[in-house]
Amino acid sequence: MKNLIFFLVLFSSNAYCFDIYQYIKWKNYTDSNGNLISNSNQFQNYLKQQNIKPIDVVYHNRFLTNGIPDAQKIKIIAEKASKYPNIPISFDIEVGDRFQPKTVLPTIQKTLSLYHKFGGKAPVGVYGVLPQGLPRTEIVDNEKRQKFINLNQAYETVASQVNFLNPVIYNFNIRDFNDWKNRVDLQISEAKKYAKKYNLKIIPYFSITYITKEKRGEKIIEPLTEQEASKRLNYIKSKGVDGIIIWDTNIGTLADSSAPIFNSQHGSSKALLNFSRSN
Questions:
Q1: How far is C-alpha 163 from the chain's CA centre?
Q2: Angstrom distance (rounded) from CA 25 to CA 175
Q3: Residue 266 has what DSSP assignment?
Q4: Are the C-beta atoms of residues 134 and 148 closer than 8 Å to each other?
Q5: How many CB atoms lie within 10 A of CB 90?
Q6: 3-7, 39-43, 157-161, 179-183: lowest mean pLDDT where?
Q7: What is the CA radius of gyration of the chain?
Q8: Which residue in 94, 95, 96, 85 sits closest to 163, CA to CA?
Q9: From CA 246, how far away is CA 47, in angstroms rounded?
Q10: Which of 12, 62, 70, 148 has the fewest CB atoms below 10 angstroms from its CB?
Q11: What angle in degrees, to the nearest 10, is found between the helix axes of 226-238 and 177-198?
Q12: Rounded distance, CA 118 to CA 111, Å?
């Protein structure tokens, strides 16, 4: 009960704020003077200075052992979350067959149960589970839309164990704004349904790049233009969500095989900085 009260106080204190979080594990960036710097720690500090806050995205190796929630690993996460309660936790739990919730839910429920058992004080969510992700390339017709809505109902129990929902509204390689917008509308509409019922926040995942190629772990990425990123960021905020998580792959390269650069004077990086300053 004490942990629940803490969560409510922590989140309600920023009830009317739009929080911008990031999980961008790049090391190359340009500072406000246009100087190119290649240091991941300095990059993280630079983002903090721009009011773009860190979030701890927790992958399988940190909380599973042989595919099973590991109490000792999760205890370490909970202890760190109690030490840094202002850094939210988002578990990335991609196990089983998502169209067969019984192969997924036990792992999610056990992971979250252990996190709470060990007194984790940071607000917690789960990546892309409620609501579920939409097809990346297929047209979302009425049949797929209803299938998506029905699938979300099967995952509703997750809402009782989290403090915020993490819809996934990445760009992938969806260049058409209206196509992307329609997917966002459906995702956020579903998220709001459960957020209202369980008094949760909605903090979707977004990226400032397109993924133009993805094969055997290889990702070719392309930054959005400044105009594209600004338009999409502002549209997300207009949906009445509580914040956003900017996630961009650390294994992606640009088309010329070079590492991406967070360019504060250009493109989607500049758009994100301007968006942060206006919020």
A1: 14
A2: 24
A3: S
A4: yes
A5: 25
A6: 3-7
A7: 18
A8: 85
A9: 11
A10: 12
A11: 30
A12: 11
Encoded tokens for 111 = 């992971």
Task: Give me the residues paired with residue 127 across strands.
Answer: 166
Question: What DSSP assignment string belongs to 126-185?
Answer: EBTTTTTPPPSSS---HHHHHHHHHHHHHTGGGGGG-SEEB-B---TT---HHHHHHHHH
CB 20 within 8 A of CB 276: yes
pTM: 0.92
Separation of alpha carbons 257 and 265, rounded Å: 22
List, in sequence order, every residue forming a beta bridge with 247; answer none if it has no partner: 23
| Segment 173-193 mean pLDDT | 96
What is the spatial distance between Cα 66 and Cα 53, in angstroms, rounded to a whole number? Answer: 32
User: Are 111 and 77 in contact, with CB atoms under 8 Å apart?
Assistant: no
* Spatial distance between the Cα atoms of 60 and 40, rounded to a whole number of angstroms: 22
Measured CA to CA, the distance from residue 266 to residue 150 in angstroms comes to 42
Q: Which two tokens stand for residue 95?
A: 């196990």
Which of 39, 48, 10, 2 is closest to 261 using CA atoms? 39
Q: Which residue has the tokens 């961009």?
A: 248
Predicted confidence at residue 219, as pLDDT, reads 86
| 236, 169 contact by CB (below 8 A) | yes
CB atoms within 10 A of CB 217: 6
Rounded Cα–Cα distance for residues 64 and 225 (Å): 38
